[in-house]
Specification:
377 residues; Rossmann fold; 14 helices; 41% helix
Length: 377
């Protein structure tokens, strides 16, 4: 039987009913199970009646992955000749002509063979999405463009195949496939990731325990960033939506008292433990002029804050508690560091302390009240 000639690619993009939805399975390293999970979900959706095809699958000779693909329709690859050598790539035209509801496309960061219509596989995926076809794809965290330099410092490996960060931002769903470094090492040693001759070399290089721990943290943090950004957008667009901070953020409230420098140091340590952004806030009283010594002290606090990699915020306001609460909301602060009250008992009885006002006005924020020596610097 003759194979039907696919329609011209351009004709397939005439007013698609909708742009396809993109779901990305991301992991910290090869072997965590991204492709397996993608195939597993493909089977589930096929059983529910969805028209699912495999657009491109890379098994890397992993038996479990190959077996998991059995029962799913596979779009044949096309041949591409480069420098006299014939290689294969995903047949994007045939996949779009097939018009499934869902296409499973492995290795989003893959670089196509020279001479292909598009340089990168993610560009093929974007065409498939534009044709109204949903796509499940896979990628490892080290292939993100913005993390390239950091991954090179962590692992000593410069990743050549990279994707723009916008692909994660534009995706309809991003799922992290997470396993412990110990589990991944066991899979490697058992020959479930690479051929036996590559195992020792991998354990000594990319798959070192410290590398896997760092890459795992990067993957989990990247997903947390996306979840938090989506939650913030939802909260901003809805007057009824509540917003919950996922990342820790530390705010140190400094004053003209000498103990402010201690607070900056303590806040920086807390932020360091939590791998959290760090801010310092000084509230200027419009009814009070600072002395030269006090001005120099605040400048010292600002300089120390910046030395610790923090952001110094200076703002004018008469009600310090209200200003602090507003800054905490604006910057999504989760931890506030303040010094113990310097006011007299009579003042606290008459007006209440700053600490008491903060505790009444802040919700879902931890307040650290640091006991310090008033004469310390």
């Amino acid at each position: 039987m003759d194979t039907p000639t696919p329609a011209p690619l351009e004709s397939l993009y005439i007013r698609p009913a909708r742009r396809g939805k993109h779901k990305i399975f991301i992991g910290m390293a090869p072997g965590v199970g991204k492709t397996y999970k993608m195939l597993e979900e493909g089977h589930r959706l096929r059983q529910e009646g969805t028209d699912v095809v495999i657009g491109l699958l890379e098994t890397h000779s992993r038996q479990g992955t190959a077996q998991k693909a059995i029962g799913l329709e596979l779009v044949p690859r096309k041949e591409v000749t480069c420098a006299g050598i014939t290689l294969t790539e995903m047949d994007t035209d045939a996949l779009i002509a097939r018009q499934p509801q869902l296409a499973l496309i492995d290795e989003l960061a893959h670089t196509n063979v020279p001479g292909s219509e598009r340089e990168k596989r993610y560009q093929d995926v974007e065409l498939v999405l534009a044709a109204g076809i949903d796509v499940f794809s896979t990628v490892n965290i080290q292939h993100l463009e913005s993390l390239n330099d950091l991954v090179a410092r962590i692992t000593g490996v410069v990743v050549r195949e990279r994707i723009p960060d916008r692909l994660l931002d534009e995706a309809d769903e991003v799922v992290v496939i997470d396993v412990t470094p110990e589990t991944l090492e066991e899979r490697l040693i058992d020959g479930k990731i690479y051929a036996p001759e590559k195992i020792d070399q991998s354990l000594q290089n990319f798959f070192q325990r410290r590398n896997l721990i760092a890459l795992r943290e990067l993957a989990l943090r990247e997903i947390a960033d996306n979840v938090e950004e989506d939650a913030l957008e939802d909260a901003t667009s809805s007057t009824q939506a509540s917003y919950c901070n996922i990342h820790e953020r530390v705010l140190v409230c400094v004053s003209t008292y000498p103990n402010a420098l201690q607070l900056v140091r303590r806040g920086a340590r807390i932020a360091g433990y939590m791998h959290a952004p760090f801010y310092c806030l000084f509230v200027d009283d419009p009814d009070r002029f600072l002395t030269k010594q006090e001005s120099l002290h605040i400048e010292t606090c600002e300089r120390l804050c910046k030395e610790f990699g923090g952001n110094f915020i200076r703002i004018t306001g008469t009600d310090k508690a209200s200003v602090i609460a507003q800054i905490a909301q604006t910057y999504h602060i989760t931890q506030i560091v303040i010094g113990e009250s310097q006011t007299s008992r009579w003042q606290m009885l008459l007006r209440g302390s700053l600490t008491q006002k903060l505790l009444r006005s802040l919700k879902h924020i931890d307040v650290h009240i640091i006991a310090t020596d008033k004469e310390s610097n």
